[in-house]
Amino acid sequence: MNIELFVKYLKYEKRYSIHTIQSYETDLNQFRTFVYEHCSCFGKDDEACLNYQNIRSWIVELSLNDINARTINRKLSCLKSYIKYLKKQNIIDEDPMAKIICPKNKKRLPEFVQEIQMNKLEASDVYTDDFCGVRDKFIVEMFYNTGMRLSELINIKHVDISFSDLSVKILGKGNKERVCPLNSYTINIYKSYKDKKLEHGFGVSKDDWLFVTDKGNIMYPKFVYQKVVHYLSKVTVIDKKSPHVLRHTFATHMLNRGADLNAIKELLGHVSLAATQVYTHNTFAKIKDVYKQAHPRA
To answer: Helices (DSSP H) in the chain: which residue ranges?
Structure first.
């Protein structure tokens, strides 16, 4: 299989993020290993193994290993992209995915933190006053203030923060830039954080990374993820706690307070409005609660 060439194509032509490329490569290698071990493909032309029967067998194998439908569909989407690339390169003629029926995803509403819990986190003393504490508070507030993704947060530089119009420039998926407003509260945290960085001798020039580790090194996803989980655990008992939950929280709270869905779409960096509409279900749930409390016959 031409996985290595496909990875280069994703990196240099499609300009996908490192995280996305790694996911694609992992899924494709997993499929290749499966067909070699279970489908008598070892030693054969790789593309000859890319057929309906083998793909269908892989889906069954994943299902038997309790892999959920959402994950399976993500892997199949990766395989579709790879097949599309092979056809574009005239390596294969037919699409072996044409007859594949993808498993149905269970509808799952985005989990989010209640507004009262976010206010409690803001007012609490869980953050220390040293560099690490101020940085951690800034990380949480940036997620909640802008709804940005984890990959977007760790790639912000100081030059991307604008004091003049209280905003942050974000480089999103597909290298698309967007600008999100920042409130004065978050800006004040940034000023404190910047002072702490200076005290520690960490860079604060325009081209320096905004967020750094305790030792001043470039920030990485697992570090941020663990910090967010730690602080959210102080105020909520929801099952899932992550930076993406704060993204859901941002969108849900904005919508609950009357924000336009199209505006939220732009702030989140969604390409399609359909991706944003999932948050209307959470809003409707709140409307039902209000209805039950207010209507005499509810």
So the answer is: 3-12, 18-38, 52-64, 69-88, 115-123, 131-146, 150-153, 184-199, 221-232, 243-256, 261-268, 273-276, 279-294
Q: Is residue 247 flagged as an active site residue?
A: yes
Asked about 149 being catalytic, the answer comes back as yes
Q: Which of 56, 80, 173, 178 is catalytic?
A: 173
- The enclosing domain of 159 has a CATH number of 1.10.443.10
Q: Is 171 helix (H, G, I), strand (E, B) or coil?
A: strand
- Model pLDDT, residue 296: 76
Q: Of 75, 135, 149, 197, which residue is the catalytic one?
A: 149
Residues 72, 122, single domain; the answer is no
pLDDT in tens, 197-253: 999 999 999 999 999 999 999 999 999 999 999 999 999 999 999 999 999 999 999
Residue 173 bears catalytic tag: yes
Q: Which residues of the chain have pLDDT under 70?
A: 1, 41-46, 107, 284, 295, 298
